[in-house]
Amino acid sequence: MQMKKQIGVIGGGAAGMMAAITAAKEGAQVTILERNDRVGKKILQTGNGKCNLGNRALSVECYHSGDLEWIRDVLEHFDTEDTIRFFQSIGLMVKEKNGYLYPVCEQAAAVLDVLRYELQALGVEIQYQCKITKVERLASGKLQVSDGEKTWQFDAAIVTCGGKAAPATGSDGSGFKIAKKMGHTCIPSVPALVQLRCQETDLLKGIAGVRADSEIRVFCDGGEICRERGELQLTDYGISGIPIFQLSRRVNYLLRDRRNVTAQIDFLPDLTQESYEELQAGRKLLQGDRTAEEFFTGMLHKKLTAALLKMAGIRLATPMKEIPEEKIHAYYNLCRNLKLHITESNPYENAQVSAGGVDVREIKSTMESKICPGVYFAGEILDVDGRCGGYNLQWAWSSGYLAGYHAALA
């Protein structure tokens, strides 16, 4: 009888489990080497515990990398529909909310459970507490995997040990060291999908907890770099919310280069400049004998109104007829142009993913290394990161599937 192909998967996260299941279905004997005492710890944290599996609006434009065409090729071989079919085939009922995919039960634990049960049914061996440090090719052609104490030999190895985000789940960047030892280039990593910290803490303490539909524009050296629209969350240290997460990757690379970065916030993004001027003229009719607090109530959140009035030099109890026109204009300007100086982001412990990783230009579309034949990469260890909305898990499923499939059949 022909011996089954022996495949080692380094890391039992989303991409690793997908790779292992796929390779086992193609007839390989698969062993997962996991550093934790259980697989899939990070999956339990996704989608606020509901696990956003993917997104109907799958597009290469939702990803960042050094080679978007390479990503396009990967996603075309395993897309959102493939993800739905895969999970349904292993027992998970999937539903859609505005294009976002979730398990019907809205429990991330159910996603992890069906993956674990499928691994068990396919006879995939899982060895825990294995912190792999090296992968090398032997003269025999086998790949030797080592954790410093024990060694394993495989016909192919799939490296899926993540990036640097959420290190408590096992993603501490150790995979980058393994890749570098094999001769791979790793793009410097920064936290992504993470909160940003700002210099104006005195102001922020007064408006912490406020949520507002806003447009946030990021400026560097006087020029606009990027912008996002969505619900902004103000904290005592800075800014958060989905639009901030989307911007954080770009901001962190600018900060890494020691650039000066500012965020300009428009709290009334639905208004054109013309309609905003008409609003100001119309509100003058409300002035009467009102105080500043009374007059400006109804535009923005009460805490935000008080903070911006203070910045404009207006006291809440001051009658409107006593306030100079330039101070009124200053307030109106702050409503649409509040400037915050970004100093840093929260650390990897708070980040949903990390940007950077193994340079995809050194990886084939089969996920095999161009430098080390027989070694495959998948998931967050690669220089690929997506926007909020299930795109990063979709990358794990897509890249994990291709790595497992090609490793088994090569």
How would you describe what is shown here?
The protein is α+β, with helices and mostly antiparallel strands. 32% of the residues lie in helices and 25% in strands. It has 12 helices and 21 strands. The strands form 6 sheets. A 6-stranded antiparallel beta barrel has the order 13-16-15-14-17-18. Strands 7-2-1-11-20 form a 5-stranded parallel β-sheet, covered by helices on one side. Helix 1 packs parallel to helix 4. The protein is elongated. It starts with 5 loop residues before the first strand and ends with a helix.
What is the topological layout?
Layout: E1 6-10, H1 14-25, E2 29-33, E3 54-55, E4 63-65, H2 68-77, H3 80-89, E5 94-97, E6 100-103, H4 108-121, E7 125-127, E8 134-137, E9 143-146, E10 151-154, E11 156-159, H5 174-181, E12 186-192, E13 196-198, H6 201-207, E14 211-220, E15 223-234, E16 238-240, H7 242-256, E17 261-266, H8 273-283, H9 292-296, H10 302-311, H11 325-336, E18 338-345, E19 353-358, E20 375-377, E21 384-386, H12 391-409
Parallel strand pairs: 1-2, 1-11, 2-7, 11-20
Antiparallel strand pairs: 3-6, 4-21, 5-6, 8-9, 9-10, 12-19, 13-16, 13-18, 14-15, 14-17, 15-16, 17-18
Using brief descriptors, characterize the structure shown.
alpha+beta; 12 helices; 21 strands; five-stranded parallel β-sheet; six-stranded antiparallel β-barrel
